[in-house]
Amino acid sequence: MVSEEVVSVTGLRQSYGGRTALADVSFSLADGVMGLLGPNGAGKTTLLRTLATIASPARGEVCVAGRVVRTGRDARLARRAIGYLPQDFGYLPGFSVYDFVRYVAWLREVPRGVAHDSTLRAIEGVGLSDRMSDRMRTLSGGMVRRAGIASAIVGDPKLVLLDEPTVGLDPAQRLDFRSLIRSLGARAVVLSTHLVEDVAALCDTVVVLDSGRVIFTGSTGELSALAAPDVPGDTAIERGYMTVLRAGGGRA
Amino acid sequence: MREHLRVAVRYGRTHHAASYLAGLAVLVLADFLLGSRALVLPLSDATIAFRAEIPAAYAVLAAATLHSPMADFEQCASRRYQHTRAAHIAVVLALTAATELVAEAAAASWPAGIVALRSVLVWAGIALVSGRLLGMTLSWVLPLASILPLTYFQQNSDGTDRWWDWVKQPPGDLACWLIATVSLALGVLLSQLDQWTPRPWVPRRLRRVGQTRNGG
Amino acid sequence: MIYVYCTELRRSALRWWLPVLVAIDLAVLYGRARWWIGIWPQTSVAAQIPAFYFGPFFAALAAWSVGRASRHGTDEQLDAAARPRWQAESLQLAGTVTYGLAVYLVGIVAAAITSTGSAGPGFLWPGYLCLGAATIVGCAAAGHAVGRWSRSRVIAPMFSALVCFVLLGSLGDSLGLIVLTGPPDARVAAWPLVTRLLLAAGAAVVAVAVPRPRFRPRGGRRPRYGRGQAYASAAALAVVVGCLAAYATAGSIQVSRPSPARYPCTNTTPASCVWPDDQKYLPQMSAMMSRLNEIPAGLFTVPPRYYERGLRAPRYQYVDFTVPEGAMWEVATGIAIQIVNATFPNPCAAATDADTAKQIHAQYELGTWLESRLTGAPQPPSVHGGPPGVDIQAIGKLIYTQQGSQLTWVRQRLATLRNTPCA
Asked: Chains contacting C with at least 3 CB pairs below 8 Å?
């Protein structure tokens, strides 16, 4: 069975002032987890914000869930299919976990009839059912992250965009996070991270960005296979990543 | 010397110095343009000029400079910062009060300027107390709330102004200067308190809890 | 939507302040004056007065509340939402306004309960109450807008509050944004009230629909996705301009009320008649008329009936008495002037300035003496000033002296008036 493309990007260009943030980026993604790797300032967050339809492309085209996003109306319709967790996401400290996730469900226009069940499912999915009524301000950093992930998956969006979701998680929580992402099932997930081992464990495909350009697209195995013997790294995929960066002229 | 100046500029930037100065300019302008506008108050025989309430805004503006986006870092700063903060409060209060004094003296008269200066001092204390109790970004709450008694309950039954009405009593009224002194002293004292300040009036049991939290 | 609205209410920090705000409302209602109790239009205005303070206060609270997106960093999630931002903003403003109106409503209910026992026919006048509600909504909307468009977390609330306070304090009465007294001969005009409600609604629309202007768009170019928002902003501004135009041309909020077919009068001779709404004053009026009867006949020409303003044709509006803030002294002043004028209906112009001065002084003294006799007490300290040149304290003492000495004093003034040489 050939799965339908959930998101595709063609000739995408973004710039801030005179600085190019993304240059001629193209890729597409059906169901599965795509890792977005790259050094700081490579354009990962800009790409995620563009996929989330927050930033409109300077040039090129973004298509989400079969809809080419050209106008504000297109963007709002597309957002029903997008779950986005920013790197520094905010929350109202007085809200309970349920209120927080339910509020995001409302923002995503999850139909009222299913919003409650969907909220409960998302909270259960991140293992916070027992803390559902607790205020957000009482949660630990890891729990807040999990609540954030619940907010990204509530309403079963077709495309989930996670920007550095494992920042601040301890090793055990990161393992839990991996299980959680695996349990998301049939949907497209774009995972932006610095942590190559997370990508190795979770992702079907990898896109490596450097200075706003895509310098590698392929599977994790293909990335590992590129590893040169003389580059630093503890694992094959780390060395593969460093090799790609070096070949692309990026920073190590 | 140049390094000290740089430090002062950096400190000023984290404490909204530019916004503060711009705010002062706006308030001086408001003093001149709207100061003499009479406020017709419910159930009051007398009107109150808007200039009587403007010092509240001056005071809140001064207190607002204590807010800093780097407050978390400042909390664990060393002794030099505490001295700087004390100097900050003194300088900002003096500058604010002096500006209001001169603005009012120019817009109305010197006695009006002295009353306005006294009002700034009273409200500055209230704003500091408000900031301490509710957080620096809510330093406006108590000054704003204090406008109610000053505009609604400020008259005795015979139509004279109550003794505590610091915006209406003459410049030499001792009771109002006492209010200003107490308010400012309380505000400055509370703004200087931290977790380590001895609080003999707090029961020992609660003090221990506070220290554990602090340490933890 | 309802769930999120309820969440806004449940999780709002304002819920902790509700008891304090209710206490302030009741303090404003009862703390200063209670003469409004028992008179429905005045009760309605008294219940509306807290809006004078709640308007600026809720402007500040709305400005503070709207800053939570930047305080707690939820801007990014709101930008990425499928739901238009104005909906989230609306619910937040609705939450703040709900608290404002809830507090206001408590005051209204308290005022109604207080007046029910002693008031005449009728009930609270919704016009005045709606005007107060419009003030709270409009001010909260203004605060929401300022808080949304400003970056400052401290200055925006204070600025919103002071602007609203100045607007209501210096222009509120003349612009008809607030009413400070509700005399029975006035009513709230329907269309001007509608325009104020529309203006408040228009302000709310602008507050939630118009985003903070970005003079330098992100990335050096205008975001394509924001065009719809620009249209919405332009439409919202057009709405509010239309509301402003309607408001500006609508006329005064208070207009004359048609005089009633039947109205209560005292069972005395002379009699005093008041609006049905003011019937609680009848016992005091009767006492006043009885005191008037204690003055020996023949001294003055006493009209047989006195009317509260608005009961008779408009030409009597400067003749008939009013009862401002329940002050019987003002009633006595109105009646005293009528008595003096009836006693000397067509005084001639005095021959010299000195004679004119003596004539006027005698009139003033007689008027003040009549006022004191009618109320049975000297001029109260709450009444400031008085006729120029009149020794009010001396007349206050005079009314407690023997009737004979008072009449001698009165006859001297009457003689002065009768014997004034004409020009």
From this structure: A, B
Do residues A190 and A204 touch, judged by C-beta distance below 8 A? Answer: no
Closest CA to C211 of C57, C2, C99, C70: C70
State the pLDDT at residue B203: 61
Phi, psi of A25 (to 5 degrees): -90, 130
Could you tell me if C373 and C349 lie in one domain? yes
ipTM: 0.83
Instruction: Using CB atoms, pick whichever of C75, C84, C223 lies closest to residue A56.
Output: C223
- Tell me the pairing of strands A7-16 and A82-85: unpaired
Contacts of C7 in chain A (CB under 8 A): 95, 99, 102-103
- Count up the domains in chain C and report the number: 2
Q: How far apart are CA A13 and CA C152, in angstroms?
A: 34
Is C17 in CB contact (< 8 Å) with chain B?
no
Residue C53's nearest CA partner among B118, B123, B53, B162 is B53
Q: Is C284 among the domain residues?
A: yes
pTM: 0.84
How would DSSP label each residue in C369-422? HHHHHHHTSPPPTTS---STT--HHHHHHHTTS-HHHHHHHHHHHHHHHHTPPB
pLDDT of residue C332: 93
End-to-end CA distance of chain B: 40
Q: What is the reported pLDDT for A251? A: 42
Residue by residue, DSSP assigns A47-84 as HHHHHTTSSPPSEEEEEETTEE--SHHHHHHHHTTEEE
Query: With an 8 Å Cβ cutoff, are C76 and A54 in contact?
Result: yes
Instruction: Please judge whether C4 and A102 are an interchain contact, meaning their C-beta atoms are less than 8 angstroms apart.
Output: yes
Location of structure tokens 């801030």: A16
Together in a domain, C244 and C290: no
Domain hosting residue C296, numbered range = 271-418
By C-alpha distance, which of A102, A192, A79, A198 is closest to A150?
A102
C183 shares its domain with C295? no
Asked if chain B contacts chain A via 3 or more Cβ pairs within 8 Å, the reply is: no
Tens-place pLDDT, residues A44-102: 888 999 999 888 888 888 998 888 888 888 888 888 899 999 888 888 888 899 999 99
Q: Bridge partners of A25?
A: A12
Instruction: Give the Å distances, CA to CA, from A105 to A49, A114, A115, A122, C96.
Output: 19, 10, 6, 10, 22
Statement to judge: residues C231 and C309 lie in one domain: no
Chain C residues with beta carbon closer than 8 angstroms to that of A76: 81-84
**C24 contact B CB<8A:** yes
Q: Where in chain A are the domains?
A: 1-81+158-170+194-252, 88-157
Pair of tokens at residue C158:
């204070």
Same domain, C58 and C197: yes
Taking domain A1-81+158-170+194-252, whether its CATH number is 3.40.50.2000 is answered by no
Asked whether residue C182 falls in the same domain as residue C303, the answer is no
For residues C290 and C246, state if they share a domain.
no
- Judge if C293 and C367 occupy the same domain: yes
